[in-house]
Design a protein that fits this description.
Layout: E1 2-6, E2 23-27, E3 30-33, H1 39-49, H2 54-58, E4 60-63, E5 66-69, H3 96-105, H4 113-121, E6 192-199, E7 214-221, E8 237-240, E9 249-250, E10 254-256, E11 283-285, E12 303-305, E13 319-321
Parallel strand pairs: 6-9
Antiparallel strand pairs: 1-2, 3-10, 3-12, 4-5, 6-7, 7-8, 11-13
């Protein structure tokens, strides 16, 4: 198992009380989707299975905290909107139950919080954003790496000094410059992402609002098109009722490392280097072929590894390290963020 350091260390700017203390979590090797699940993928699942989402069953979705009659994943912001022209955008108006059901159908599962955070920030304990620590540096434009609430955003709290070009969601393969160290895209911005597990305090947490922790609420990560930069941090957590759905919430799936070893019809990116801990340098990871959604026998989505196996794997590598990787010790590092 690898020890992933989860949470914000020290007293980083913007860090919330529920993000602390920073602590090690033992993780087995796992896979995670390179992108968020798309409208096209979820539509195929619904059409093949007849599945009805929470929004469809209850007759409404939400936007900016307001109930929108008729809003479903087919109609993200009400009956006068559709997804015909945005097949490659992330599916929204899906509850935690919907996300969990889709991932299980596809042969995977939702990632747990620690897996999601590991995939977002790599081996660096103090990595603030998936792309690094740049936020408001001279010459750095946040809209070049993420879809957040910039000038195109309909919110009154938008950042008028930057523009990512999208009022709402963006295609799931957008903003490659903002990829995580493992090549996962849009782990900051675009849509919040459901993860598995309840909204509970970290070990040793003394958060003054600790009474908000409970087993019922689930967690979403990553921020969305409607959020400012502080919500895009790799350690930021937000609690939601599991039945909640909105036009800013989607998900991606994960799977145990051995889940696809003998599967046909899926291309996975395998490292050729034999390492026990991930390289600290950024890797460029691309699938070797297009993959489509299939039932459990043919898993869905483009998937990249987040914790490399310790031995050579049989599939052809598509990972090309941009520099010589650095092998880190296997013990957990407790560093401030």
């Amino acid at each position: 198992a690898d020890l992933a350091t989860v949470g914000a260390g020290g007293e980083p700017k913007f860090a919330g009380g529920d993000e602390q203390p920073q602590h090690p979590v033992a993780l087995e090797a796992f896979w995670i989707d390179r992108t968020e699940v798309t409208n096209a993928q979820f539509s195929e699942f619904a059409n093949l299975t007849g599945y009805k989402t929470t929004a469809e069953l209850e007759g409404y979705g939400t936007s900016a905290g307001e109930e929108i009659e008729g809003a479903t994943f087919y109609h993200p912001r009400g009956l006068d909107t559709g997804i015909d022209q945005i097949d490659d955008h992330p599916v929204v108006q899906v509850s935690w139950f919907d996300a969990q059901t889709y991932c299980e159908w596809a042969g995977g599962r939702l990632p747990i919080e620690a897996e999601w955070e590991k995939a977002a920030k790599g081996s660096a304990n103090d990595r603030i954003f998936p792309w690094g620590n740049a936020f408001q540096l001279p010459g750095f434009d946040l809209s070049s790496v993420t879809n957040y609430c910039s000038n195109s955003c309909p919110s009154a709290d938008k950042d008028v000094n930057s523009d990512d070009g999208y009022a709402y969601t963006a295609p799931v393969d957008s903003f490659p410059a903002g990829a995580s160290p493992y090549g996962a895209l849009n782990m900051a911005g675009n849509v919040w992402e459901w993860v598995d597990g309840s909204y509970l305090g970290y070990p040793g947490n003394n958060y003054e609002l600790a009474d908000t922790f409970n087993d019922y609420f689930k967690v979403v990560r990553g921020g969305s098109w409607d959020n400012s930069a502080q919500h895009l941090r790799t350690t930021f957590r937000m609690n939601n009722e599991p039945r909640l759905r909105s036009d800013g919430t989607g998900f991606r799936c994960a799977a145990d490392a051995d889940a696809f070893e003998s599967s046909a019809g899926i291309e996975v990116a395998e490292p050729t280097l034999e390492v026990t801990i991930e390289p600290t340098v950024e890797l460029t990871i691309e699938p070797t072929a297009e993959t489509t959604i299939e039932p459990t026998s043919e898993p869905t989505a483009e998937i990249v590894p987040t914790i490399e196996p310790t031995s050579e794997l049989p599939l052809e590598s598509t990972v090309e390290p941009t520099v010589e990787p650095t092998i880190e010790p296997t013990d957990a590092l407790e560093t401030g963020g």
